[in-house]
Write a structure and sequence with these properties.
77% of the residues lie in helices and 0% in strands. The chain has 125 residues and is mainly α.
Length: 125
């Protein structure tokens, strides 16, 4: 079975959130795990509903990723403009944080664009 690039990007974004959710669940916070399970269930239910609901659900997930990426990049920019003295915040908002944020932004934008309604060919004649 061969997966298309949009399905792979969707799977990678869900897997990234699932890994973080499991890590947080192991340290006692189960809310991220509930969140990613709800998102996965909503995507699956929308896929089963048919009539373009799956496409809309993936585009909403992509839009959420775009917002999340912009928020993270804004936070990193804010910490550059108005530095704080928290070593934890400084250690966790380095170049890896910015790179991951940009990847979330790009993946979300790709999902929004790639899962749009296909253009039907026009019939002439």
């Amino acid at each position: 079975m061969r997966l298309s690039l949009p399905v792979g990007v969707l799977a990678l974004t869900l897997a990234a959130f699932a890994v973080r959710a499991v890590i947080y669940a192991l340290i006692g916070s189960h809310l991220p795990l509930v969140f990613i399970l709800a998102v996965a269930l909503a995507l699956f239910a929308a896929h089963l509903a048919g009539r373009g609901a799956g496409r809309v659900a993936v585009r909403v997930w992509g839009l959420c990723l775009v917002i999340y990426g912009v928020f993270r990049l804004g936070l990193a920019g804010l910490l550059v403009v108005a530095p704080i003295s928290s070593p934890h915040a400084i250690a966790n908002t380095g170049w890896v944080f910015v790179l991951v944020s940009a990847l979330y932004l790009l993946a979300g934008a790709y999902l929004v664009i790639a899962w749009r309604k296909p253009v039907e060919p026009t019939v002439t004649g």
